């Protein structure tokens, strides 16, 4: 089995499972994810919103695993995260533009919604003129959105390199170097996406980098802080980023082509 075929089979499943767990966290902890859905605690009907969003994400996560329901599931996931970005993150960010944590949460949300739309596009099987053009536009915009998120992540690694360095496991040397190196990798990957040069290679390396983070950074942190919801959330977000990167790698062609999952 070719690596692209394998990635097209497993990435939507991993993406769906990750979304399911994020939704389950809402219901289990009776609270929204503070990084992805930072709704103020005084919001009217907050508990209702927690339950509805949690159940919706869980259902979408399950549907994303099932091939015939995949496209609408990913579209709905994208819409949920789009609403969070537009209605929650943007007002908070515009109210405190120097809030580094909000920049991170906002553009993690932005990246996830772009990835959900990319998965939706590649779950459809259409070659008709109008629909094909619509998917083409949607794919290009979603890639640009993901690239913008990568630029933000890269800039943050340079701005807050000292803090990022503290997250790197102690047995790995040259912490600050790796913090800056990863920041440069984010920006280089974003440029590759925008100008469409060495895009396949860039996304392969980016996906590998995210997977290495999952293995070297997030799994040990989840193990050592098993009751900390945020650690598991960070692992899941990293997995989602890896899935998006590998999807772009696996579907990259000289000319846009919909229905990658159907071949």
Keywords summarizing the entry:
single chain, 263 residues, mainly alpha, 9 helices, 77% helix, globular, membrane, DoxX protein, transmembrane, transmembrane helix
Q: Mind explaining what this structure looks like?
A:
The protein is 77% helix and 0% strand. With 263 residues, the protein is mostly helical. It has one domain (3-262). The chain starts with a helix and ends in a 12-residue tail after the last helix.
Short overview:
The chain crosses the membrane at residues 7-26, 46-66, 73-94, 100-121, 141-160, 172-194, 201-220, 232-250. The chain is mostly helical and 263 residues long. 77% of the residues lie in helices and 0% in strands.
- H and E order: HHHHHHHHH
Strand content: under 5%
Total number of helical segments? 9
| Radius of gyration from CA coordinates | 18 Å
Please, how many domains? 1
Helix content: over 70%
Contiguous low-pLDDT stretches (5 residues minimum) are: 254-263
What profile does the largest beta sheet have?
Answer: none
Cα distance spanning the termini = 13 Å
Indicate the overall shape.
globular
Mean pLDDT: 92
Give the number of DSSP strands.
Answer: 0
**Category by helix and strand content:** mainly alpha
Show the helix and strand layout.
Layout: H1 3-29, H2 46-65, H3 70-95, H4 100-121, H5 129-159, H6 161-167, H7 175-195, H8 199-224, H9 229-251
Helix pairs in contact: 1-2, 1-9, 2-3, 3-4, 4-5, 4-9, 5-7, 6-7, 7-8, 8-9
């Amino acid at each position: 089995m070719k690596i692209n075929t394998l990635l097209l089979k497993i990435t939507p499943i991993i993406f769906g499972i990750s979304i399911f767990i994020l939704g389950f966290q809402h219901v289990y902890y009776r609270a929204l994810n503070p990084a992805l859905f930072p709704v103020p605690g005084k919001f009217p009907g907050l508990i209702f919103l927690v339950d509805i969003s949690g159940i919706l994400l869980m259902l979408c996560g399950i549907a994303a695993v099932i091939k015939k329901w995949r496209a609408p599931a990913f579209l709905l996931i994208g819409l949920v995260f789009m609403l969070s970005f537009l209605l929650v993150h943007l007002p908070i960010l515009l109210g405190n533009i120097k809030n580094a944590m909000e920049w991170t949460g906002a553009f993690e949300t932005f990246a996830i919604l772009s990835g959900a739309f990319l998965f939706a596009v590649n779950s459809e099987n259409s070659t008709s003129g109008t629909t094909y053009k619509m998917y083409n536009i949607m794919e290009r915009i979603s890639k640009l959105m993901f690239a913008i998120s990568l630029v933000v992540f890269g800039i943050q690694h340079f701005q807050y390199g000292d803090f990022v360095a503290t997250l790197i496991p102690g047995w790995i040397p040259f912490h600050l170097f790796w913090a800056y190196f990863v920041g440069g990798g984010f920006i280089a990957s974003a440029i590759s996406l925008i100008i469409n040069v060495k895009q396949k290679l860039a996304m392969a390396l980016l996906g590998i980098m995210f997977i290495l983070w999952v293995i070297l950074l997030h799994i040990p942190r989840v193990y050592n802080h098993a009751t900390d919801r945020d650690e598991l959330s960070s692992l899941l977000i990293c997995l989602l980023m890896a899935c998006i990167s590998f999807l772009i790698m696996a579907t990259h062609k000289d000319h846009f082509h919909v229905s990658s999952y159907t071949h």
